[in-house]
Amino acid sequence: MTSITWTNEYITPTYSRIEIALEKGNGYYVFDEEGNRYLDFTAGIGVNSLGYQHKEWLSATQSQLNLLQHTSNLFYTNPGAQLAQKLCTRTGMKHVLFVNSGAESNEVAIKVARKYGHQKDPNKHKILTLSNSFHGRTVTTLSATGQDVFHQYFDPFTEGFEFVQTNNLEDLRTKIDQSVCAIMIELVQGEGGVVPLDQTFVEAVVEVCEQNDCLLIIDEVQTGIGRTGKLFAYEHFGLKPDVVTSAKGLGNGLPIGAALLGEKVEHVLEPGDHGSTFGGNPVVAAGANVVLDTMTDNFLTQITENGDWLKEKLLALDGVESVSGLGLMIGVTFKSLSAKEVVAKAKEEGVLFLTAKEKVRLLPPLIIDEQAIDEAVNCIKNILKVEVGVS
Ligand SMILES: *Cc1c(COP(=O)(O)O)cnc(C)c1O
Predict the structure, then answer these.
(1) Termini Cα distance of the chain
(2) Would you list the domain boundaries of the chain?
(3) Cβ distance 303 to 354 under 8 Å?
(4) Residue 101 contacts residue 255 (beta carbons within 8 Å)
(5) DSSP at 385
(6) What spacing in Å lies between the alpha carbon of 95 and ligand 1's midpoint?
(7) What distance in angstroms lies between residue 249's CA and the mean position of ligand 1's atoms?
(8) Nearest one of 243, 195, 208, 230 to 359, comparing CA atoms
(9) How far apart are CA 117 and CA 312, in angstroms?
(10) pTM more than 0.90
(11) Hey, is 27 helix, strand or coil?
(12) Radius of gyration of the chain (CA)
């Protein structure tokens, strides 16, 4: 088993991996090197939105590979232009900047916010984020992440971030002032344990942004591109953000990040202010165009219905304590089993789940159907029956 032994021997051990070497996928199933099949409710951490071997996506990326794999951003190419046009048309945002990951898209948002603030007043550079948030692994996005465990070893961290207690209006009002150039939030905290923000808190964030001329940045790296049943989760909250960041689900597995810039900031970045060698790569963008084209109203409605149905079935199980989330971004806690225990048992049963803090996290491909939902729910039902004797 060279995959596992060589990974452990030669790849820096920064991940706690699951003992499976995956070889191929089809639809919502993946197969390991021994040919065992697994129902995949991880989707590469909310990335493989169209599942595996999706026909149009394969055909678009393969055709582009046959034409041209990369050009740099010194030239014009069609796939990225199309993708930017689609993203702007569907959201009302004005400009897009393509990068390669979620952290990088948040770096763009942070740079836009800092320059926006700087143009008003050199001291307007503070960015408020939330406790329990997650914004990425670069030094600056770690600095923006409101969890102490991420603020070790790599100091000095980037200055100018302050954390507001999630869903705490009073704390928000205490920390806002004219030195704040932006507030950056996830609408459903993903890594933080599938925690949706309260509507009243989100409304207060919008209000203080308006009163203090600071930008509203929505980190939609995990929640975006259909995951919650809308193209972007901010639509659930009726927001008009200044910056939206996207990554995970946008490329269906090929690396891409995007920062979408609204009216207020469309002209903030100028030539030389930012760049990326690979950003907007034509093969990745050709695939992302298919992802966006797939996100029709019908498809998004299906995601909502499947998500609601999945949540309802999970809540009906005796051993389930709570179910949170929006669309197909779902967190589950159990009365007498830990998330880790459930994930380990499910793997033995041929179903792959994620964890997020104390929750089992479900991020299936967005193409799942009744059969996949039944299979996942039955798996959990069996685990509960065997382990704690409930059904
Ligand atoms: C995953 C994630 C990121 C980081 O994305 P990478 O592609 O790993 O850099 C940032 N923000 C949120 C909300 C995420 O879920």
Answers:
(1) 38
(2) 93-278
(3) no
(4) yes
(5) H
(6) 21
(7) 11
(8) 195
(9) 45
(10) yes
(11) strand
(12) 21
| C-alpha 130 – ligand 1 centre gap (Å) | 15
Buried b (16+ CB within 10 A) or exposed e, 171-184: bbeebbeeebbbbb
Q: Which atom from ligand 1 is nearest to the alpha carbon of 222?
A: 15
Q: Are 73 and 230 in contact (CB under 8 A)?
A: no
Q: Sort 9 into a burial class: Cβ within 10 Å, 0-12 / 13-18 / 19+.
A: exposed
Task: Report the pocket of ligand 1 as residue ranges, CB < 6 Å.
Answer: 101-103, 106, 134-136, 186, 190-191, 219, 221-222, 247-248
Q: Whole-angstrom Cα distance, residue 353 to residue 346?
A: 7
Residue of the CA atom closest to atom 6 of ligand 1: 102
Segment (H or E) for 26: strand 22-26
pLDDT in tens, 299-323: 999 999 999 999 999 999 999 999 9
What amino acid is encoded at 331 in this protein?
Answer: G
What is the CA(386)–ligand 1 centre distance, in A? 36
- C-alpha of residue 371 to centroid of ligand 1, in Å: 30
Domain covering 93-278: architecture? 3-Layer(aba) Sandwich (3.40)
CB of 188 closer than 8 Å to CB of 197:
yes
Read off the pLDDT of residues 170-213 as tens digits, 9 standing for 90 and up: 999 999 999 999 999 999 999 999 999 999 999 999 999 999 99
Please, how many CA atoms are within 13 Å of residue 243, restricted to the half-sphere of its CB?
32
Residue closest to 186 by CA, chosen among 170, 208, 201, 171? 201
